[in-house]
Amino acid sequence: MLLDVAAVQAALRTAGLDGWLLYDFHGSNPVAQRLAGLASSGHITSRRWYYLIPAQGAPQGLVHKIERRTLAHLPGASTEYAGRGELEAGLTALLAGMGTIAMEYSPRNAIPYVSRVDAGTIELVRDRGVQVVSSGDLIQQFEAVWSAEALASHRAASERLYRVKDRAFAAIAARLRGGVPTTEYDIQTAMMAWFAEEGLVTDHPPIVAAQENAGNPHYQPLTTGSRAIGRGEVVLLDLWGKLTSPDAVYADISWMGFTGPEPPATLVAAFTAARDARDAAVTLIQEAAAAGRELCGWEADAAARRVLQAAGFGAAILHRTGHSLGEEVHGNGAHLDDYETRDERRLLPGTGFTIEPGLYFDTFGVRTEINIAWGPDGPEVTGPRQMAVVPVV
Question: Are residues 56 and 26 in the same domain?
Fold first, then answer.
């Protein structure tokens, strides 16, 4: 799909920017590769290229002579260069008249997902009297906003993930009742088979983590050495997937169980704090949307983290509150993060993201994860919210 240049120019004018300069060298900027329509071809250029979309007028490219066709599929003409002198002269001509432009740059690398252009290239641009600002919100508008079809695919994927989650807990309970030895890997393998039945694909198998392994946010059971799931234990399930249709987007959920009739007080306290933190973020996002107030990703993270800290669990926080969802499970929109980074991108209508506060200890961990899709009626939680630990008996 080609970049909608007219829409980009309208967004630039709204933002008060003179242009958006896409730049890549050897695949170092996947954002530019995708927006320029090069990523889908599988071709990675071996020389530097630039593509300037001005707020007014025709786009212009700057390409190496041995790769002169690199941008031929995009609107506008390209100037060719070979030696470094021609490159610098071409860049000077390309940026003539530009005052402030956007690039894949993030001040102090605050948002690593956006910070794709190297410091030397930023210096080259600034040497020509041009100010560089982050393209973070532009990327969101043109990569993270879902179509109606994408939103429908998310809803369908979400429904299927919840069914897989229910089957996993039911399988654990049945095996425990039947005295059948069961490992985390056994359940993960069964879940992957159910993914196939449901028509879901994923970039990685789901997380099945029992007791102390639930205290590792990115734990993965292995073929050998996987932990057995016993009675009276915490079980964390984290599963994400999408439909096989083109342009489908992910859903991503986490759910907590306990293989006994009544979870211990320590587990209940931690889960309750995580649940309340999750819901505090949801409330903030929905109230801001209803009031027409712009909200940044960091603000939602801060709202959730305040609840965890007030409950006495500040030391058990290891990650941000949520991430963008897209055709990849970690999408190119704003993340709910004022912890690992400070994501100052706005939470935009038309995007989707997770809310997943977690707490992690040496002996167990908890995480509750839901998805929000910002559709025509505002930000909506697209599946059931877990309100209490599931008894897996």
Answer: yes
